User: What shape does this take?
Amino acid sequence: MKKRRRFRKADEENEEMALQITSMADIFTIILVFLLKSFSTGMATITPTSAMLLPSIEAPKNATIKEILTLEVSEKSVLLDQKPVLEMSNFSPLNVANFEPAITNALQSQRTKSRSPASEVEPDSDSKLLVLADEKVPYSTLQMLLKAAATAGYVDLQLLVTKPD
Assistant: This one.
């Protein structure tokens, strides 16, 4: 009988020493997915028109610019991905009543044109917009532009600025 007890005790000790790695594998999978999701592949090069002077600001060192739709506001026009949308005069729209609807329509048509099967699954993937505005653009013009972008469904808006020298 004593021998049986020894075997049972040895079996119990072996069971206690076995590692349970199922939950650890789950944790590592979650960490891996998080790291892959937050990894940035690189910086995009964005070149505003030659007459544009971007405002300067101190930015964090880890700030990156990704390839997204750009909306550029200059003294004489509004450009969407380097294509003219509206004409401006001295940073103000020529027709204030038509400004917001024209920007909204251009952004909505661009959004439906660029919609991909991946964006059907992830609805916010195509709702990012980069705004390049000259530092002399009046706040009222910028406010109308941002309102039109929000109406068109762009919820992740970024304003491009430069670092001071």
Notes: The chain has two domains: 2-38, 69-159. The longest helix spans residues 96-114. Strands lie at 69-73, 77-80, 83-89, 92-93, 128-133, 156-159.
